[in-house]
Design a protein that fits this description.
GO terms for molecular function: oxidoreductase activity. This protein is mainly alpha-helical. It has helices at about 5-30, 35-40, 45-50, 55-65, 105-120; strands spanning about 75-80, 85-90.
């Protein structure tokens, strides 16, 4: 087989792509194997490695790692200040077939809040939790279950 210019360029490109694939592979993943262990060993250091330096941001990033039912992360967060946030259950992520009375749904919210509290404590902040702030409890918050 005669090596033409076209064939030479194609082979060079293919070889270069194969050689550079290993160095690119680490950038293709959302996080590396080191990050996977770091967020379990020291969630605060993991938050800092992602560039979060404000305490509330670090608390929220850490709390997002909380265990949750069926790995659905059924929460919505609204930051209301530099020192406070509101946590809502995401009703679009309810699992009525599996969790018909929302037991796991609410356990998940509790896990989030407990991890946020633990992180705040580690950062030497006091925490206060209020259930249903400014809520209209005359309405059913879960229209799927009437």
């Amino acid at each position: 087989m005669k090596l033409t210019r076209k064939r030479f360029l194609w082979n060079s490109f293919a070889s270069g792509a194969l050689l550079s694939l290993s160095s690119l592979q680490k950038d293709l993943y959302a996080y590396s194997a080191t990050d996977a262990t770091l967020h379990r060993q020291d969630p605060l250091k993991f938050a800092e490695s992602l560039g979060f330096t404000k305490p509330l941001d670090q608390i929220l990033v850490t709390a997002l790692l909380a265990p949750n039912s069926h790995n659905s992360q059924p929460w919505k967060i609204k930051k209301v200040s530099d020192s406070g946030f509101l946590l809502f259950g995401d009703i679009e992520k309810q699992l009525p077939e599996i969790d018909s009375i929302n037991r796991q749904f609410f356990h998940t919210q509790g896990c989030f809040l407990e991890l946020a509290h633990s992180t705040a404590d580690k950062l030497m902040f006091d925490t206060k939790s209020h259930t249903f702030p400014k809520a209209n409890l005359t309405q059913n918050p879960f229209p799927l279950y009437q």
